[in-house]
Amino acid sequence: MRADAAPKPVTVFLDRGGRVVSEDVRIPRFGGGDRAWAGIVACVKDHYAPFQVDIVDQKPARGQFITAVIGGRASQLGLDDRWTNGVGPHSGRVIPNAIVFIFSKVGTGERDVSNLCAVTAHEVAHALGLDHSTKCGDIMSYWLDRCGTRRFMDAAAPCGEDEERDCADGHETQNSYRRLGQLVGFRAEPEPEPEEDSWDTPFQPADPY
Q1: Rounded to whole angstroms, how far apart are CA atoms 12 and 51?
Q2: What are the residue boundaries of the structural domains of the chain, listed by start?
Q3: Which of 82, 102, 142, 175 gets the highest tally of CB atoms within 10 A of its CB?
Q4: CATH topology of domain 10-184
């Protein structure tokens, strides 16, 4: 197993504008409207709030960033619409400048904020180095629609899709929450506010009995 590089902050650009993939392939822009889009952005930010991952929906002017293209159908990339909600590269480490695709015109449609948020967080996490988890309810579960509320879970579980397997990084299990923290770092906890002195006057001893 390779040693991990020191964790570094990562920027992720959520792209609603569509993308020309090749001369013959174009992913159309997200068609769910501003309200649905704002909900997706806020939800993805919430999933990544504990980590050094900045989620933006305006293209950064410079530097490296991961792009999540949200729109279109899997079939436009030659994939099966029935089984593919998103696709992204995975190497067990952060992939600089990776592009992932979230297909918003499948399943329950472009106003399903909760599902599109979960798929976006899932595909982005592949580009950040996470594998599929067999833990139901984990964002990295292969079956995102079967387990209710989804999040990066602080619990070790075997990797896998339909069956358990070793994880691609060589470990037997993956703790999605802890592993993501190893890869990109955790945000620093805010410093507690100093307590104010509640005494207005110096302490005076009580009169003796």
Answers
A1: 12
A2: 10-184
A3: 102
A4: Collagenase (Catalytic Domain) (3.40.390)
